[in-house]
Design goal:
The structure is a homodimer of 413-residue chains. By secondary structure, chain A is an alpha/beta fold. Chain A has 14 helices and 16 strands. In chain A, the strands form 4 sheets. In chain A, strands 10-9-11-8-7-12-13 form a 7-stranded parallel β-sheet.
Chain lengths: 413, 413
């Protein structure tokens, strides 16, 4: 039996215990992990230093995401404490009804089982995903990027010993140490042991998982996010939302990529917005009609409208009305996060109901799409697909349900 | 473009209209379909006769499932009327919360989009699945078994013309007329147009879909269902439930296959139960300890414990206590429907919480696992897997959700 199969098998056995663990046992384990992360911070930071040294030739953006410091480690630990305070989704009764024959039916939340998580090289994702998986009564098999292997080993070892010390199975958190494609490919076949596979990362990773996995997948996706500025909108608010959504973190999936501007407000909004974007170092691209107002904007072709730039680039396009904006977003977008800035309640309602994205905003920045910020405690990723989970994948999204039917001897006619 | 691709593309375009259709429009269409089914009953029954003639050499059980009569057609039509009366899941607010910064978040139900449904040869399934898909704002691509092709053509034509006459797109219901494996295989690749694939049928069909589909799948599954008779149970009730669960329809997935009997009540329960099963024509198989009580029962090996007989066969095994029964069911069962017969509240609660099946019963027949009976209005199938839907797949299970976030200009710090 290979390493991947053995770890999945161990996770499956651990998940049988996790499924029935009491809330108090799970919370005790989460607090023990928080404590252990603090106690072993120097070992974890040393492991992270080794990862950074091995990644010296990689781009700064990769190294930034890989790097851990005291403060981030402390916030990792408080993440576990926060999740311990959240209500346990397991055992929650979502719905109850009674049939005419007296049968009482309840839909009850239960854990998914074993979650396999394939992701890139941010060690804090290792901790966040594990805290959510454990609290929701699951076991988790982690397969992070190769750059973070030492950090992940140190983190997983810490979590495992804290689990064991608090009476829950250490095997509930597993790390696949084979960080080659082969390791991931093997994991995608483990249907016997793994209940759901969650990939988080670039489009190539997601595609590889969707095409090769023999296990049900919850896809997380790219964000080609839009802000539509409606006729009669508060243009100060629009500018503020656009700058916030583009500039606060241009390299993440909830960052703004394309602005759609109602043609009636374009001449008033665009010149001052353009100056501010330029000053912030953003390259502005525009459709032909935009470039009649912003002559220096770089031309934009149709293919670019589909793009998630993940960079200091923004595309601007003029539209005739809210319906054109909705059609554009549903056609070119990635169903992630899209905003309307408007004072018109009817247009706001139309946009909210017809834009087919996991998060649809009225008068707010797209940057709020995040499990922690939205009150989920954290997230394993943002699901932009339709099955099972949509939006941040938090505690409830890591559960399934069963129907419990209580009778007094009823039989079917 | 091939026929399969063209139909999926048309379904996708229709789904964009269905998504935003008002409840009243959908209900009007459902009632129009009911009326049209009644009006065209002779054409539909003639098409069904052609199917039956072509299937003359097939087993009686297949022909029985294929056959339509006036009464069944009338109940098909009333099925559409029943679904028209159900609340529309689309637009339902499942949850609402407010963040400290004033953002108000709602989780709202929205349609899945395009549902591809691969199933066998029961024409009433064609109607039931379509009624649920349309009411929940979806388009459906049907690929039924070859034996029912004429019936399905007549049914789909009737539904399409009623849809068009009531102002909704006829293309919202599509029939793949290529009933070869090739047709199904093509459908499983239509990721660009199809949002979810639901297979319903034998284990071979489900496996083929899971292994080959490039589209998210909701699996429906076989039912190796159990009744456990606890120490101190009402043995009259136990016998009544066992006979009902085995005999009322032995060929369906919620029929009983294996009885687990607490060793303390076996000698009292089994002899009279055995006589009644025998009288009803059931072959009784037993574990070694069962055969010490029922000497004439046929021996049963371990492999048989995994089997869904779907026949007049029952397996009986003695167990020491409720925990052994739970372990047995989780190991040998198919996570479908399992019952405990008990007077002990603690054992009932333990069984309900630890048996990992989509439907867990206390003191009732497993035969109630059915969308219509449980109050879902109908079902596309019974999901025994963990993602998205578990148990009967009804209206709510054919939807997904989105988050609508309303602000007053909030931006992220």
């Amino acid at each position: 039996m290979g390493d991947v199969e053995e770890k999945c098998m161990k996770a499956k056995a651990a998940s049988e215990i996790m499924k029935n663990a009491a809330t108090s046992e799970k919370n005790r384990a989460l607090l023990a992990i928080a404590k252990a992360l603090r106690a072993h911070s120097s070992a974890i930071l040393a492991a992270n230093k080794a990862d950074l040294a091995a990644s010296a030739s990689l781009p700064l953006s990769v190294r930034k995401r890989l790097e851990l410091n005291e403060k981030q480690l402390a916030s990792m630990a408080s993440g576990f404490e926060l999740i311990a305070k959240f209500p346990d989704p397991v055992g929650q009764v979502m719905k109850k009804w009674k049939l005419k024959n007296g049968l009482r039916i309840s839909r009850v939340r239960v854990p998914l089982g074993v979650i396999a998580f394939i992701y890139e090289s941010r060690p804090n994702v290792t901790a966040e995903a594990s805290s959510l998986a454990l609290k929701s009564g699951n076991a988790i098999v982690l397969r992070g990027g190769k750059e973070a292997i030492n950090s992940n080993r140190a983190l997983v070892r810490t979590m495992q010993s804290a689990l064991a010390a608090s009476g829950l199975p250490a095997d509930a958190v597993q790390l696949i140490e084979d960080t080659t494609h082969e390791g991931a490919a093997q994991l995608m076949q483990m249907r016997q042991y793994v209940d759901v596979l969650i990939p988080r990362g670039g489009a190539g990773l997601i595609r590889a998982v969707v095409e090769n996995a023999k296990i049900p997948v919850i896809e997380t996706g790219a964000g080609n996010c839009h802000v539509y500025v409606d006729e009669g909108a508060d243009l100060k608010m629009a500018e503020c939302i656009i700058l916030n959504a583009k500039l606060t973190s241009p390299y993440v999936c909830n960052a703004l990529e394309h602005v759609l501007v109602n043609e009636k407000v374009a001449a008033k909004l665009l010149p001052s917005l353009y100056d501010k974007l330029l000053k912030a170092g953003v390259e502005v691209r525009g459709c032909d009609r935009t470039r009649r107002i912003l002559e220096k904007a770089r031309p934009m072709n149709e293919g670019e409208l589909y793009q998630e730039y993940l960079d200091l680039i923004i595309g601007i396009k003029l539209v005739g009305d809210v319906r054109q904006a909705i059609d554009h977003i549903n056609r070119y977008g990635t169903h992630h996060s899209d905003t309307i800035v408007t004072k018109n309640k009817k247009n706001a309602a139309l946009f909210a109901s017809q834009v087919d994205s996991c998060c649809v905003y009225v008068n707010a920045s797209t940057r709020f799409t995040d499990g922690y910020t939205m009150g989920f405690g954290g997230e394993v990723g943002i699901s932009t697909q339709r099955l099972h989970a949509r939006g941040p994948i938090g505690l409830e999204e890591l559960t399934t349900t069963k129907l419990v039917i209580e009778g007094t001897g009823q039989v079917r006619e």
